[in-house]
Design a protein that fits this description.
alpha+beta, 9 strands, two-stranded antiparallel ribbon, 4 helices, Small Protein B, Chain: A, about 160 residues
């Protein structure tokens, strides 16, 4: 009998690939996320889009705007499920104050990078970011293409 390899299940739910392309990520933090029950079920099914989402500070709290969590068809029909509702980020006061100060003074922004499971809870990796100019994006694409071609060359050489 052949032995089966143990399945390693990724804890990642969704990644915001657009954020790393559009911004220079200077610092990352882990934040909890305040969710409703139907949202957790949708996350388990992978029904989330982080591409157009961003983090804002309002009333001394951090909020996630624009994250689309699509309700499942089996979700309750007697209550309204807003897929684009703002969700509160769970951060320590000193982390909120530090991020808010950097955003207001330096002109940085805070973007969500990845949503993942950690010990049964949903966590959001957020990054303090500065926007890239068009020539920076072209350099990123050129570097990515070169790395891909380099891997092909090395693969064919062996």
């Amino acid at each position: 009998m052949a032995k089966k390899k143990p399945q390693t299940k990724s804890n990642s739910i969704a990644k915001n690939k657009k954020a790393r392309f559009d911004y220079f990520i200077e610092d990352t933090l882990e934040a909890g996320l305040s969710l409703e029950g139907w949202e957790v079920k949708s996350l388990r099914a992978g029904k989330i889009q982080l591409g157009e989402s961003y983090v804002m500070f309002k009333d001394n709290q951090a909020w996630l705007f624009g994250a689309l969590i699509t309700p499942l068809m089996t979700a309750s029909t007697h209550s309204f499920h807003d897929p684009l509702r703002t969700r509160q980020l769970l951060l320590h006061r000193r982390e909120i104050n530090r991020l808010r100060g950097l955003v207001e003074v330096e002109g940085s922004t805070v973007v969500p990078l990845e949503l993942y499971w950690k010990e049964g809870k949903v966590k959001l990796a957020i990054g303090l970011a500065k926007g890239k100019k068009q020539h920076d994006k072209r350099a990123t694409m050129k570097e990515r293409d070169w790395n891909r071609d380099k891997q092909r060359i090395l693969k064919n050489a062996h």
